[in-house]
């Protein structure tokens, strides 16, 4: 049994819908669409063993829009292969080629967008406080708009920051 690297399905090699050789390894796919997706970016599915992955703590994110801003910038950075930024866990998990990028470059990309990456071991996991009207925000961060929202599932009311 083999595993389709794109969707994760188990594939019997004799029943594979598509096959490809990559870096001396035979890759089996459950359907031709997975092979097409693989061919667009094989390094995402069979990473180079020399690539590195870091999970950088990011302070200052308050919503999915904040995370998307960092994610988009990381993906445009030379040497970055994959990135997943989560505003809930406040982490930017990034896979990169050390020959083209390094931790310092990744930290700069985040900080240039107005967020903070604390030195190793100093991450404070508590949520970002809601800024008051006269609170000064980092450069590049809008003051946001504090609104009241009713969370549908619980019916509770809470303050929400809408980033600008």
Name the overall outline.
elongated
Main sheet attributes: strand count, strand direction, barrel closure: 3 strands, antiparallel
Determine the strand fraction and express it as a percent band: 25-35%
Rg (C-alpha, Å): 20 Å
Helix content: 10-25%
Our measurement of the CA-to-CA distance between the termini, rounded to an integer number of angstroms, reads: 50 Å
Mean pLDDT score, rounded?
80
Number of strands: 9
Order of helices and strands: EEEEHHEHEEHEE
As residue ranges, the low-confidence spans are: 121-132, 143-162
Structural class: alpha+beta
Strand order of the largest sheet: 5-7-6
**Helical stretch tally:** 4
Secondary structure elements and pairings:
Blueprint: E1 2-3, E2 10-11, E3 18-22, E4 25-29, H1 32-40, H2 42-45, E5 52-57, H3 64-75, E6 80-86, E7 91-96, H4 103-111, E8 145-150, E9 157-162
Antiparallel strand pairs: 1-2, 3-4, 5-7, 6-7, 8-9
Task: Describe, in plain words, how this protein is organized in 3D.
This protein has helices spanning 32-40, 42-45, 64-75, 103-111, and strands at 2-3, 10-11, 18-22, 25-29, 52-57, 80-86, 91-96, 145-150, 157-162. The protein has 164 residues and is α+β, with helices and mostly antiparallel strands. The strands form four sheets. Strands 5-7-6 form a three-stranded antiparallel β-sheet. A two-stranded antiparallel ribbon has the order 1-2. A two-stranded antiparallel ribbon has the order 3-4. The relative contact order is 0.12.
